[in-house]
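Weekly structure sync, notes
Attendees: PL (lead), two postdocs, one rotation student
Agenda item 3: pending single-chain targets
PL asked that the sequence for the first pending target be pasted directly into the notes so everyone works from the same version. It is reproduced below exactly as submitted, 362 residues in total.
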Amino acid sequence: MIVFEKKINKILFTFILIFALIYLISITKFIFEPVSAYLAAIAVPIIGAGIIFYISNPFVNWLEKKRIPRLAGIGIVFLLVIAVITVIVMFIAPIVQRQFTNLINNIPDMFDNAQKLFDLWQENQNVIPSQFDDTIESITNNFNTYAEAITTGIIGTIGSIFGFVFSIFLIPFFLFFMLKDGHKFVPFVSQFLSPAKAKSFRTLSDNVNHTLASFIQGQFIVSLCVGIMLYIGYSFIGLRYSLSLALFGLVMNFVPFIGPFLSAIPAIIVGFFQEPILAVWATVVMVIAQQIESNIISPNVMGKKLSIHPLTVITLILAAGGIAGFIGVLFIIPAYAVVKTTISHFYHEWKKKQPEEDPDLF
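Predicted structure, written out during the meeting:
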């Protein structure tokens, strides 16, 4: 048909088909609900096993190159994982639990102290605009309510974590088969494709695998280093709950761009209520750790970072947080990187098949 001879018409028609497909899915979503429920049920073990897979698979491959059978290498990995978990449960978890319990119990006292500071500040301020008086009074009068809400929210979050326990027990099974048979997936799928498509699929798989491996392995090492530096720094300045705050900083460092800023907030608050000058020192510790991470550790561990604009990162994190909460925030950047890699691959494949640009495109 003549209407489809120009590329712009083909592109517009493609978008129409995409939006029509989205509309059909939206009005028949009841068909996909069982699939969504199934995917939600297996998401935690698959994601957990996938993270450990990308961290441990290079070690298994290295052992295999040393002529150690792959199953034996997988067994060594499981023994190492068990050893790490044992150390965490026996030595680290009790300290974190004690510090976290003390922190929860001290939240009301922190709010009481904050209320006293606001009252003292308000009594000694004569230049506060009158329109702010009601706002300040409302905040100070409801400190206890805020404290109870925060405590309840934290306890509710802890309760929801237990919902993952059963899924976590499935992670070793998924991990075992990923390490054992993961390298067979691409050849298995390729045998059903034509030579050209099989080659394209192998290239796409290699690119996606490299993207995920680079992000997960690099981010794991970088975050571990940041957590260690924060623990040393917080302990040096005498900050309470130093291990819990350092672990929080370690986890938040997985969130690109804004994670380090968010991880500094609890440390600054705790330092301020312990001793105001400690809030300054906690900030100094965080800045030093982030400078070492961004200028020394990341360039040597991760090499060239994912080419994602900071504004795109912030937008993705805000959207993922609103849709999937903290889990979405953690995984939106690698998911976006995979989607970007996939689209880029198919775009280059499409460009190879196109003739020279038509000067009469529009």
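Discussion points:
- The CA atoms of residues 45 and 267 lie 32 Å apart.
- The two ends are 17 Å apart (CA to CA).
Action: rotation student to compare against the earlier draft before next sync.
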